[in-house]
């Protein structure tokens, strides 16, 4: 990550820490984290639109490695918000089932996109130009309601899946922490 990107990323992490550790309700903290994630990504998005990449390799690196470090938080807080709205509040057994269902959604994503996930996780590069150059973006996956991917000039065919790998990693950690709080109820849901 270049120095500019690192500064944006550190700003994002600091803002998230402040929001998560504040005296706000969980809903307010999630909303604040989502907003700061979206705001900082928007500033970075503007920066990359105003400055061209020096090479194809730099563009690939940005969309494969850098962008997902920002947009993953937007998607993660979207998942958390959804969970907060729909999780059962009073019944621990139902809550355990809910978290198991959420983990199954993540597993389904990994199963559906197994080849791509392996490609990214193993550090393969032979399809980078297809996945992570804007020239390969036909716009199909961009205009489907993802608030951070409305501009085809800042999206590629593969960066959304890379984003979701990061987001689901964060969300899975959150779910596992929530399930630990339930103790034995986790085992009743298998």
Number of helices: 8
Shape: globular
Portion in helices: over 70%
Structural class category: mainly alpha
Report the count of strand segments.
0
Unreliable segments (pLDDT under 50, ≥5 consecutive)?
Answer: none
Please tell me the overall pLDDT: 89
Q: What is the makeup of the main sheet? A: none
Number of domains: 1
Our Rg estimate from Cα atoms comes to 18 Å
Instruction: Give the percentage of residues in beta strands.
Output: under 5%
* Termini separation: 41 Å
Give helix and strand order, one letter per element, not per position: HHHHHHHH
Question: What are the salient characteristics of this protein?
Answer:
mainly alpha, about 190 residues, globular, 8 helices
Give a verbal description of the structure.
The chain is mainly alpha-helical and 190 residues long. It has one domain. It contains 8 helices and no strands. It is globular and about 55 Å long.
